[in-house]
């Protein structure tokens, strides 16, 4: 597994798309901090990038890469290496390089321009999002034979998580607004990994507003260590479950 | 006749009460040690000065020091032991219906009311530390309490852990400068029916409900800082029924509601900065002819909210960090109006738990749509000339 990890990592280090992604992130982050006079404003712009763009790119990159290395994977599969070791090495290498790219493109500018607690929260939740969507991408790439189909499904999944789910939830809120649905809104939103990451950042950014009318609700859910554990646990599940399915698919897969 | 300086050592042969009775107008009594003689009354013009470490302990008898003469100075004491009561406003230092009291550099340690001026004029309250009991906060009175006073100066004091930090009722022509009012149970500063007062360079932080100015006219508020006043009904500054005032160069940060304007007329809100508040500005529809210009709105969850369709105020030339317009004629002002009231703001007014969608892509899109084609928000609620760049850098 270590060998697979090593060679995949070397391959990824030479990958132009990966380098481009890291540089693009750096450009966006730096650009925001340079253009905006106020670091807080730049930071809020970055939040949008992390919430919307980072999951998309992490997922698409994983999917496309999965198809691109298919021949190499086939070559590995005929060697005396277990399939779990192959996939394990690849997933690990992908995760590590995506996180490195993000650390370089996002973490570094934040550290330089906006070294705050909330920036740390964004970095951590952003990294979690990368892992979640890379895991989902792995599963999609392995379960679809056709590249175009895989990419299409990936786009669809991203779209659901970033927009459709929220829209449905909001519609539900309107439809049931005369019923006591309040306690359900937060847990339901937290099922969506993007929403969950967003809420964790928001609890820092919008803390003042959170202390308003609805404050109790959020403090109850996330303020306690239990709530935070539930939130992090849910994110972990979003990583572990797709990966587990990916391993199962890969073991039984006819390459 | 020469004014005398009489040294007094506590626990000596003569009690301070007797020295006060024997004092001639204009005398100075220099006190050292800890005086414990119940309520002390100063009934002639004189100065009571505490040497380093001097303490006056009221021994829970009621008030500690009561001033019933003009031209009295009380300086340099630690004052404690005013009785907590439901019937009487017992204070550490109380001035009753007299002029020109000077209360300077005292430490009011856990008094029920700290410094209490009633019917007084031309007084100076400067450099005092007024600290309540954080544990007994709900049994505390006000830190600095003025009732029916005129032309008083409240300067450089620190007030904390009381009910209201600084409380004014029927007080006119008074200046409040460079004070700090922190961690009070209710308001950091509370004005009722008090006209023509100015407060500037004060800091109000972590108070239960922030600062409230009510039913007053011709108020000037400049260079104050309103910080971290959090809670469902907590405001950086609450203005209720205020006419003809100025709010200039103040800083509002990290409050649940930065500034609430309720029923104010001809009030100028200029050059203030609103940062990281939940609601930067709540402008009720009953406010008229207020001018809101050159203010800075950055990093607030909501820039503005209101409670009706009517908008009779002038919002112009502010800086809004959410503004995405352009400036083709390069005059520094955006060419398209900014609408500070978004769809999401309205949604959260109706369903507070919708906060969960804050800063999501969906809300950004819906907000943008509402700004392009306003259907739900009042049409008049807009800034026609939003600033392109932050004022002062």
Chart the SSEs and their pairings:
The complex is a heterodimer of chains A (255) and B (393).
Chain A lengths: L1 H13 L1 H20 L3 H30 L1 H8 L5 H31 L3 H27 L3 H29 L6 H8 L3 H13 L1 H4 L4 H9 L1 H27 L4
Helix pairs in contact in A: 1-5, 2-3, 2-5, 3-5, 3-6, 3-7, 3-9, 5-6, 6-7, 6-9, 6-12, 9-12, 11-12
Chain B lengths: L4 E5 L6 H7 L5 E5 L1 E2 L4 E3 L4 E4 L4 E3 L7 E3 L5 E3 L2 E3 L10 E6 L5 E3 L2 E3 L3 E6 L5 E3 L2 E3 L12 E4 L5 E3 L2 E3 L5 E4 L5 E3 L2 E3 L4 E6 L5 E3 L2 E3 L4 E8 L2 E3 L2 E3 L7 E9 L2 E3 L2 E3 L3 E6 L5 E3 L2 E3 L3 E5 L4 E6 L2 E3 L3 E4 L6 E5 L2 E2 L22 H8 L10 H12 L21
Parallel strand pairs in B: 1-2, 2-5, 3-6, 4-7, 5-8, 6-9, 7-10, 8-11, 9-12, 10-13, 11-14, 12-15, 13-16, 14-17, 15-18, 16-19, 17-20, 18-21, 19-22, 20-23, 21-24, 22-25, 23-26, 24-27, 25-28, 26-29, 27-30, 28-31, 29-32, 30-33, 31-34, 32-35, 33-36, 34-37, 35-38, 36-39
Structural class of chain B: mainly beta
Q: Span between N and C termini of chain B?
A: 61 Å
Written as H for each helix and E for each strand, in order along the chain, the element string of chain A is HHHHHHHHHHHH
Mean pLDDT of chain B: 91
Strand content of chain A: under 5%
Q: In CATH, what is the homologous superfamily of the largest domain in chain B?
A: Single-stranded right-handed beta-helix, Pectin lyase-like
Q: Please report which band the strand proportion of chain B falls in: under 5%, 5-15%, 15-25%, 25-35%, 35-45% or over 45%.
A: 35-45%
Helix/strand-derived category of chain A reads mainly alpha
Number of individual domains of chain B: 2
Q: Which CATH architecture of the largest domain in chain B is right?
A: 3 Solenoid
CATH topology of the largest domain in chain B: Pectate Lyase C-like
Q: What is the helix fraction of residues of chain A, given as a range? A: over 70%
Greatest contact pair?
A: A-B, 39 and 37 residues
Indicate the radius of gyration of chain B in whole angstroms. 25 Å
């Amino acid at each position: 597994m270590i060998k697979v990890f090593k060679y995949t990592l070397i391959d990824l280090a030479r990958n132009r798309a990966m380098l481009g992604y890291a540089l693009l992130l750096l450009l966006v982050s730096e650009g925001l901090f340079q253009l905006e006079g106020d670091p807080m404003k730049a930071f809020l712009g970055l939040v949008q990038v992390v919430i919307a763009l980072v999951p998309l790119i992490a997922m698409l990159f994983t999917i496309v890469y999965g198809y691109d290395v298919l021949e190499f994977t086939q070559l590995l599969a005929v060697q005396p290496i277990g399939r779990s070791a192959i996939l394990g090495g690849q997933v690990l290498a992908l995760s590590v390089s995506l996180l490195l790219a993000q650390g370089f493109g996002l973490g570094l500018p934040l550290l330089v321009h906006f070294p705050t607690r909330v920036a740390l929260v964004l970095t951590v939740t952003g990294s979690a999002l990368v892992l979640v969507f890379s895991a989902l991408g792995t599963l999609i790439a392995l379960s679809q034979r056709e590249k175009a189909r895989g990419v299409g499904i990936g786009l669809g999944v991203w779209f659901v998580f970033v927009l459709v789910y929220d829209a449905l939830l909001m519609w539900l809120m309107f439809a049931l607004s005369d019923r006591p649905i309040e306690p359900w809104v937060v847990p339901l939103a937290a099922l969506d990994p993007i929403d969950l990451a967003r809420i964790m950042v928001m609890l820092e950014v919008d803390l003042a507003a959170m202390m308003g009318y609805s404050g109790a609700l959020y403090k109850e859910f996330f303020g306690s260590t239990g709530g935070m554990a539930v939130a992090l646990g849910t994110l972990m599940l979003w990583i572990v479950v797709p990966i587990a399915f990916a391993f199962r698919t890969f073991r039984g897969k006819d390459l | 006749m020469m004014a005398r300086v009489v040294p007094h050592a506590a626990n000596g042969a003569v009690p301070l009460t007797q020295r006060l009775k024997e004092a001639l107008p204009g005398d100075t009594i220099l006190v050292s040690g800890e005086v414990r003689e119940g309520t002390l009354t100063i009934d002639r013009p004189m100065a009571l000065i505490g040497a380093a470490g001097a303490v006056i302990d009221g021994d829970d008898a009621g008030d500690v020091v009561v001033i019933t003469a003009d031209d009295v100075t009380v300086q340099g004491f630690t004052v404690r032991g005013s009785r907590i009561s439901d019937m009487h406003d017992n204070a550490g230092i109380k001035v009753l219906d007299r002029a020109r009291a000077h209360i300077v550099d005292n430490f009011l340690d856990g008094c029920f009311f700290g410094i209490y001026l009633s019917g007084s004029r031309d007084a100076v309250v400067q450099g005092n530390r007024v600290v309540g009991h954080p544990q007994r906060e709900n049994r505390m009175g006000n830190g600095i309490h003025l009732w029916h006073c005129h032309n008083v100066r409240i300067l450089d004091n620190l007030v904390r852990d009381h009910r209201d930090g600084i409380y004014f009722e029927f007080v006119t022509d008074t200046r409040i400068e460079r004070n700090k009012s922190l961690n009070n149970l209710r308001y950091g500063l509370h004005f009722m029916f008090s006209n023509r007062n100015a407060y500037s360079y004060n800091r109000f932080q972590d108070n239960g409900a922030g600062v409230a100015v009510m039913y007053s006219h011709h108020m000037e508020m400049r260079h104050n800082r309103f910080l971290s006043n959090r809670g469902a009904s907590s405001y950086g500054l609450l203005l209720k029924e205020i006419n003809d005032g100025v709010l200039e160069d103040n800083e509002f940060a990290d409050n649940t509601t930065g500034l609430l304007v309720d029923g104010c007329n001809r009030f100028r809100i200029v050059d203030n900065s609103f940062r990281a508040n939940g609601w930067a500005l709540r402008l009720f529809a009953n406010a008229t002819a207020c001018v809101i210009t050159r203010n800075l709105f950055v990093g607030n969850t909501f820039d503005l909210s209101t409670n009706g369709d009517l908008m009779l105020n002038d919002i112009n030339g502010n800086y809004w960090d959410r503004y995405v317009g352009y400036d083709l004629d390069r005059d520094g002002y955006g060419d398209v109006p900014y609408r500070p009231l978004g769809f999401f703001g309205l949604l959260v007014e109706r369903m507070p738990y919708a906060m969960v969608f804050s800063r999501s892509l969906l809300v950004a899109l819906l907000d943008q749509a509402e700004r392009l084609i306003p259907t739900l928000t009042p049409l008049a609620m807009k800034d026609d000339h939003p600033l392109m760049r932050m004022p002062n850098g």
